[in-house]
Amino acid sequence: MWQEVRALILKDVTLEWRQRYAFSGIMLYLAVTIFLVYISFIEMDPVVWVTMFWIILLFTAVNAVAKSFMQESSGRQLYYYSIAHPRAVILAKLIYNSGMMLLLATMGMLLYTMVNKSPISQIPYFVMVVLLGSVSFGLAFTMMSAIASKANQSVALMAILSLPFIIPVLLLLIKLTQTALLNHVEFFPLQDFVLLFSLDVIMVVMAVLLFPYLWRE
Q1: What's the pLDDT tens digit per position in 89-141?
Q2: How does pLDDT run across 14-44, given as a tens digit for each residue?
Q3: Distance separating alpha carbons of residues 217 and 215, to the nearest angstrom
Q4: What is this structure's pTM?
Q5: Are the beta carbons of 215 and 93 closer than 8 angstroms?
Q6: Sign of the torsion formed by the C-alpha atoms of 96, 162, 126 and 33
Q7: Of 7, 21, 36, 72, which sees the most CB atoms within 10 A?
């Protein structure tokens, strides 16, 4: 099955390279949004700085991952159905979208901290939270994109379906990032990290178990 996963990931990378304008559009959206925040706030409170950063990444994730299944035609989906196991398909999508979100989050983090004066004191800790949070966004929106693709390919439906899962993740990420504002971290928030990791694991398990039934429709 892992050979199928690698082949499907390579296919997604090839399609993304051929349609570079789509990724460029997402990067442009990310850069423009960060610039609008810059010109809208002369000086930001550190908590507002953190909150705006995650909101920007959240909407970037919606735009980046929404096309995951929605760009696939019915003919192409039928072709995948005949050559690959559905679990291989969803695992490939989860890995690919998580990787893309890691790239977007890294570039967004660098641009956001350069344009808007960063109040972050614990930089390695902040980078770790950003990377973990970007993976969480990629996992959550991938499964919701699969569900929404079966209902008239509605991006709005994907966003609505994601709310029960993504809001706790967003609040948890904001809470974790606020720790990076401290000059000295007395107690490492291990419990919050374990909770976030557990939510990611739950999303992967749900996707692997439920996607084969969705794929048959």
Answers
A1: 888 889 988 999 999 999 999 999 988 888 888 888 899 999 999 999 988 88
A2: 777 777 777 788 888 899 999 888 888 777 8
A3: 6
A4: 0.86
A5: no
A6: positive
A7: 72
Give the ranges where 19-154 is alpha helix by DSSP (H). 20-40, 46-65, 67-70, 74-83, 86-115, 123-148
Q: How far is it, in rounded angstroms, from Cα 5 to Cα 61? A: 22
Query: Sign of the C-alpha dihedral, residues 128, 132, 134, 135?
Result: positive
Tokens of 94: 């989860």
**DSSP single-letter state for residue 181:** T
Cα–Cα distance list, 144 to 1, 9, 133, 181, 213 (Å): 23, 19, 17, 32, 14
Q: Dig out the tokens for 168 from the structure.
A: 């706790």
Give the number of other CB atoms < 10 A from CB of residue 90.
25
Distances (CA, A) of 99 to 13, 61, 89, 213: 11, 12, 15, 25
Taking the C-alpha atoms of residue 149 and residue 71, their distance in angstroms, rounded to an integer, is: 9
Q: What is the pLDDT of residues 53-68, one digit of tens each?
A: 999 999 898 888 877 7
